[in-house]
Amino acid sequence: MNRFEKSFSALKQNNKKAFIPYIMAGDGGLENLVERLTALEKFGATAIEVGVPFSDPVADGPTIQAAGLRALENGTTLRGIVKEIEKARRVVSIPIILMTYLNPIYSYGIPEFVRDIQIAGVDGCIIPDLPMEEEEIITPALESAEVELIRLVTLTTPLERIKTISSKGRGFLYTVTVKGITGVRNEYDSELSQFLTSVKEVSAIPVMAGFGISNKEQIEDITKYCDGVIVGSKIVDLFEQGRLSEMEDLMSVVKQESKVL
Ligand SMILES: O=P(O)(O)OC[C@@H](O)[C@@H](O)c1c[nH]c2ccccc12
């Protein structure tokens, strides 16, 4: 079993849902990365998504973009991030997912990138601008390194395609819950619960919902229809403002047993 399978099967046995926080590596200085990963594990994170700052992000909303700019300004690089993750791996045992666009991977070199993240103890990668039809440029290398590609589906992806996509991985399926970019939102598409229910029905792997989720009520509601949530912009804000007790409180929702499976 890989780290994802271990984490998700433990949650399932205890009737619990997953919480995956996203952080922007290098925001506030790369030297805080190990500390932040450690804090998130202590607060009960199931896994952590670590964002790599990039000058031309496609799906990032204003909060994540601003965090990315701050990180780039202080000289954060993909190589530096991978080194810090390697240090963190000695103390953090939950899955670590690296979120990066294709361009930084290309300039690193695909084989070198995959080798280094494997050594560092990275469990999965999210590459938002890599479509399923093109993924073979990196999946053979990732597979032999036992690093999972975490694939994204959205409200507009046909169910047949979702079924195909979910049959490929041994991580989880990232279901984007909005038609748009990342960022805190107050309202959801009226079809979201029905959509998540259908995705759950066809998916061979755990279904995580992300984009626009920022408070306990949303988390309680959305986790009725899927295996857990990914929270980005809100976590980035709370770290930036040093509001760690609020973060712990937000993450505590998934510590309770959930009634609906
Ligand atoms: O910030 P939000 O709305 O909570 O959404 C999560 C998101 O930030 C994180 O998963 C993410 C950041 N950038 C991305 C690009 C593509 C897919 C996912 C992401």
Automatic annotation (TrEMBL):
<comment type="similarity">
    <text>Belongs to the TrpA family.</text>
</comment>
<dbReference type="GO" id="GO:0005829">
    <property type="term" value="C:cytosol"/>
</dbReference>
<comment type="pathway">
    <text>Amino-acid biosynthesis; L-tryptophan biosynthesis; L-tryptophan from chorismate: step 5/5.</text>
</comment>
<keyword id="KW-0456">Lyase</keyword>
<dbReference type="InterPro" id="IPR013785">
    <property type="entry name" value="Aldolase_TIM"/>
</dbReference>
<dbReference type="InterPro" id="IPR002028">
    <property type="entry name" value="Trp_synthase_suA"/>
</dbReference>
<keyword id="KW-0028">Amino-acid biosynthesis</keyword>
<feature type="active site" description="Proton acceptor">
    <location>
        <position position="60"/>
    </location>
</feature>
<dbReference type="Pfam" id="PF00290">
    <property type="entry name" value="Trp_syntA"/>
</dbReference>
<dbReference type="InterPro" id="IPR011060">
    <property type="entry name" value="RibuloseP-bd_barrel"/>
</dbReference>
<comment type="function">
    <text>The alpha subunit is responsible for the aldol cleavage of indoleglycerol phosphate to indole and glyceraldehyde 3-phosphate.</text>
</comment>
<protein>
    <recommendedName>
        <fullName>Tryptophan synthase alpha chain</fullName>
        <ecNumber>4.2.1.20</ecNumber>
    </recommendedName>
</protein>
<keyword id="KW-0057">Aromatic amino acid biosynthesis</keyword>
<comment type="subunit">
    <text>Tetramer of two alpha and two beta chains.</text>
</comment>
<keyword id="KW-0822">Tryptophan biosynthesis</keyword>
<dbReference type="GO" id="GO:0004834">
    <property type="term" value="F:tryptophan synthase activity"/>
</dbReference>
<dbReference type="InterPro" id="IPR018204">
    <property type="entry name" value="Trp_synthase_alpha_AS"/>
</dbReference>
<feature type="active site" description="Proton acceptor">
    <location>
        <position position="49"/>
    </location>
</feature>
